[in-house]
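re: the backbone from monday

yeah here it is again, tokenized this time
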């Protein structure tokens, strides 16, 4: 059983500042009321059963937060990372980019893109590809030109290790005149036909050099 020790408000505040934590963010991650953090910093809470959790989130030790050592890294509880979680669960970490590929008029790539790491089961990914995780990413489709196959807002898994169409009519993430699209491609004499699944959307033809292939869409994820 964990024996509660007196908390050092100074050490607690110092570690929060070093790690860039606000009171609200630390409270959110520790799943406690923010007023508890405020009281600890004011020295009004001499001890707390949540101290081991605070130490883990702040990547330090209980001993440091209770002023038993001046080294915040001595005995520090490591913060779990996507990589460590992946290793423990036999999972892989896949990048999700905050970018929408057009399934209609297209989406312009005109600014920086935010990316997050999401952990998935290795066996689930293996159902779709043998590519290395760093060759895969998730993004969203936008529009209805690929309906009913892909709906507006669906998440698609894109394999960038596949960048040469070897079969006609597979679905690809492409850029066409700097516009991101998700379309089917069919080889033509001088380039590719760009095809939509929505019968109301006419096909387009891209000549050599006008189209760049990002990767093949290998899975579609949607809410039910």
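seq for it, each position gets an aa:
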């Amino acid at each position: 059983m964990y024996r509660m020790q007196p908390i050092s408000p100074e050490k607690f505040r110092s570690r929060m500042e070093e790690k860039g934590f606000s009171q609200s963010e630390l409270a959110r991650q520790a799943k406690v009321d923010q007023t508890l953090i405020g009281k600890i910093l004011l020295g009004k809470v001499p001890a707390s059963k949540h101290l081991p959790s605070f130490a883990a989130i702040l990547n330090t030790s209980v001993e440091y937060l209770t002023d038993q050592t001046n080294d915040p890294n001595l005995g520090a509880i490591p913060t779990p990372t996507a990589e460590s979680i992946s290793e423990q669960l036999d999972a892989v970490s896949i990048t999700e980019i905050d970018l929408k590929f057009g399934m209609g008029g297209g989406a312009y790539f005109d600014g920086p893109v935010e990316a997050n790491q999401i952990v998935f089961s290795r066996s689930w990914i293996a159902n779709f590809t043998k590519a290395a995780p760093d060759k895969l990413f998730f993004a969203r489709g936008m529009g209805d030109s690929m309906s009913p196959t892909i709906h507006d807002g669906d998440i698609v898994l894109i394999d960038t290790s596949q960048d040469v169409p070897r079969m006609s009519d597979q679905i690809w993430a492409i850029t066409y005149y700097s516009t991101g699209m998700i379309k089917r491609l069919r080889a033509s004499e001088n380039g590719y036909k760009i095809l939509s699944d929505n019968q109301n959307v006419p096909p387009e033809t891209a000549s050599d050099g006008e189209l760049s292939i990002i990767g093949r869409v290998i899975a579609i994820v949607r809410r039910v």
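The longest helix spans residues 9-19. Residues 83-221 form a domain with the Umud Fragment, subunit A fold (CATH 2.10.109.10).
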